[in-house]
Amino acid sequence: MKYLSTRGRNEILESAEAIITGISDNGGLFVPQSIPTLSLDDIASLQDVNYQQRAARILKEFLTDFSSEDIDDCIEKAYNLDKFDGPEVAPIKTLGDGNHVLELWHGPTSAFKDMALQLLPQVMSKALKMTEESAEIVILVATSGDTGKAALEGFKDVDQIKIIVFYPHSGVSEIQRLQMVTQQGENVSVIAIKGNFDDAQTGVKNIFSNNAFNKEIAKEGFQLSSANSINWGRLVPQIVYYFSAYADMLKAGNITLGNKVNFVVPTGNFGNILAGYYAKAMGLPINKLICASNPNNVLTDFLNTGVYDRNRSFHKTISPSMDILISSNLERLLYHVTSGDSKQVSQWMEELKVTGKYNIGSEYLQDIQDIFWAGWADDKQTIRTIKDIFDKYSYTADPHTAVAWFVGEEYRRRTSDKTPNVILSTASPYKFNESVLEALVGTDLLIGKSEFDMLEELSRLSGIKIPKALAGLKNVKVRFSKSCEKEEMEENIKNILTK
């Protein structure tokens, strides 16, 4: 399996090289040269093995330059019970009325990013040895909340790697902020950006494509890479949980082999749902991939009209991990639907950079709409949905999960499709305790309560045990309090690397 840039050039890389590099020097994202397929019999066999074995089956299709033993070792270190709170890793809950919830937040940081970011550091360490890379790798991360902590936790104290995380000041939940600024590890740094997530993400991508800056730090023995989902090594582990969910539904008798399911995915940067696109392309029986957005609904508009337009107001919401207007992973989808037309993809990306918008036209839009459906929910609808789910099913959902639930129900109302919906639950309700409690008990009872008072109250109401890592934040010292303007990101990186 080889990897190409979505924006062309004739560089053809092994997966180890693509993962270390992170992003092509022309700004493109690496994609597999071909997409492997699994038969229905292959898929059926997954129901009789655990998550780790399912992961090995999928990853070995894409990381063909890694030995089978190396992949198994990476998986064993990533998905073990010292890090995940149960043997299922990604359990699926059946709530009734054709709704199933895939819980992706049982890892060390209580968010779905752990599913990839516990594995990526292991894979990257192997890749460094395979390629005999001598430079110290500097992981740059822009986060809307969950990626930052998951990447920090995954990469802390990993040999030959430093990690620097940029997050939007006042743009994450208080629990998310505390998780990042208290992070332990000698190789980690955290900086708040005076702006929103798009400012942070654009800044990081510009730094990657700044050849002068990259040459300057290379002289000091450093090479940049990424842990965002622009890195193929972050995206490929996410394909696994789509297959795992289907296998668990087969095993439970909720479906029979070959039956199609819908996956409803809360997404901002498009990586989470793009993994579902790869799963479908590999042969997983998926009917629709339903894209759920909050009021930053640039993806909803794109999937309904074919016009991507980021020239709009930015909204701070109670589902901050989706507060994004520039969805980087969409570029990979465009590459595939154009049958690898890198010139066309490059043109659209240049139009986005210069004008803030592009239009893919009706033919490509139809191809996308054959696979995707899109909708969105505002904060009031999200709050109401959290309460409705709790009242009807005694299930406690975080705001991102509630957005997906609302959009999934809207899809059913509009289409009358009775296909089972699998809702991707991307975060523990404890990461957004204030919003969840507002939905369940109202705002008056929250007056004067600290973050940790709210954790206790949510535990009492939900019956869910508070994750140890979140409860322990109360007594952990803040290590990182620095903030900077978006124009100062390069300067701050230099200061970190040279101190």
Description:
With 499 residues, the chain is α/β, with parallel strands linked by helices. Helices cover 45% and strands 15% of the residues. The chain is built from 22 helices and 15 strands. It has a 6-stranded mixed β-sheet with strand order 3-4-14-9-10-13, sandwiched between helices. Strands 8-5-6-7-15 form a 5-stranded parallel β-sheet, with helices on both faces. Helix 7 links the parallel strand 5 and strand 6. Helix 3 (51-62) packs across helix 11 (232-252), helix 17 (379-393) packs across helix 18 (399-415) and helix 17 packs across helix 19. The longest helix has 21 residues, at 232-252. The mean pLDDT is 95.
Strand order of the largest sheet: 3-4-14-9-10-13
Uncertain segments = none
Rounded to the nearest angstrom, the radius of gyration is 21 Å
Percent range for helical residues? 40-55%
Spatial separation of the terminal alpha carbons: 40 Å
**Per the principal axes of the C-alpha atoms, what is the gross shape?**
globular
What can be said about the biggest beta sheet? 6 strands, mixed
Quaternary status of these chains? single chain
CATH architecture title of the domain at 80-112 and 233-433: 3-Layer(aba) Sandwich
Portion in beta strands: 5-15%
The helix-and-strand class reads: alpha/beta
The CATH topology assignment of the domain at 80-112 and 233-433 is Rossmann fold
CATH C-level category of the domain at 80-112 and 233-433: Alpha Beta
**How many runs of DSSP E, i.e. beta strands?**
15
Indicate the mean pLDDT.
95
**Count, helices:** 22
Q: Keywords for this structure?
A:
15 strands; alpha/beta; 22 helices; 5-stranded parallel sheet; 499 residues; single chain
